[in-house]
Each structure stands twice: as structure tokens, then as C-alpha cells.
Amino acid sequence: MDKNEIRETIAKRVAFELKDGDVVNLGIGLPTMVPNYLSEGVRVLLQSENGMIGMGPAPKEGEEDANWVNAGGGSISAIPGAATFDSATSFGIIRGGHVDVSVLGALEVDEKGDLANWIIPGKKAPGMGGAMDLLIGTRLVILAMEHTAKGCPKILKKCHLPLTAQGQVDLIITEMCVIEVRKGKGLYVTEINPAFSKEDIIAATEAELHFVEDLKPMRQ
């Protein structure tokens, strides 16, 4: 699979987890592709921690407005009925448990659902941003991530990089499979991409994996 196929496969599968009416926060990068693949009739409200619920698609080139940006600084639009507010209110919404789903990327994730996704030591980073609040305050936390990085596993027995939060990840979706993080029990593969075998997935993963008895093909 090339890079574009990998990203598309992951985004398509994540889209199945979003339900009509969900308030959803999307991390930068791959997660922003997810709304392109929502099932017919499913409408979600996209929340941005810098102060909006009801983000629309990116505007056409030349139609950008410098006053309308997402948390990553990218140009956005607003759907009818969208609401804007200050950051304090936005984080009150997140910390108050009013965001249904967060879709985030990952540098590393481990068997306990610990996530590292904000900094590699020695490299400059703007800060953790709202990721730690989203991990703690959201009902369902989904990682949309490539299974490996330059051939090295990203799903580990224990994270090595500085953590964003401990034990908050619920679901890991990669180009190879879907993995549930079951608190106190470990990682359970529930769906597998037919392009890969169990042996392929085990070889690409440092953490111990359990394959459920009713293992299903990965939905697309």
C-alpha cells in the first residue's frame, strides 16, 4: 500500500465509528480526512478547541478568511448554526464531557492505552495544546495512525516518549487492523484488513495482541 492508500484506508474505517449528531474533535493531519467518508445520512458537529462547534470544509483557494482557522491554523468555514466562543468556554465543553469522539494521531501507544503524540525529545514543538484535555474529557478516543513508522512498531509494550495521557485510548485503527484497548486486559484485534495476515500484524507490533474469536474483515 502506498501512503495515500494507507491514509484513505484508515480514514474510511474511522468514519464508521461516528454517529449522526456526534460532537467530534479531529486532530491535525490524517484525522481531518475522516469527514470525507461519513456514511450517507450521518452528520457530525466538528469542534475546534480554539473556539468553534460547527466547522465546515476548508474554503476554496482564494476564499480563505484569516479570522476563520482551526486549532492547527488551517483555514476553515462554518456550517449553518455553527457557534463560536472563547477558548475558556471551548475547554469547558471538552472538560465537561460534551465532546463525544476525539480522533487523534499517535507517535506511540502502548498496551495500557497510554498515548505519546506531542513531542520527540530534542525537537521543537509548539506545546501539547488541547490533546491532554481531549483525552481525559472525551467519551470515545480513537487513534487514527499508521501501524509502523519507517518499519518500526508504534504500538508498544510501553511508550518511550513523553506521554500525553495515561490509559485513555479506547480504539486504535491502522491500515492493518482495528484494535480495542480493553482496560486491564490488553489489546484485542477485532477486525483485520484482508491484505494482511495475523502474522504480518504480529510482526509489525511490539505489544502483545489478542485476536477475538469472531474476527471480522476490516470495514471499508
Automatic annotation (TrEMBL):
Pfam families noted in UniProt: CoA_trans
Alphabetically ordered keywords of this record: Transferase
Family per record: Belongs to the 3-oxoacid CoA-transferase subunit B family.
Protein name: Acetate CoA-transferase
Source domain of life: Bacteria
A molecular function GO annotation: CoA-transferase activity
NCBIfam families: pcaJ_scoB_fam
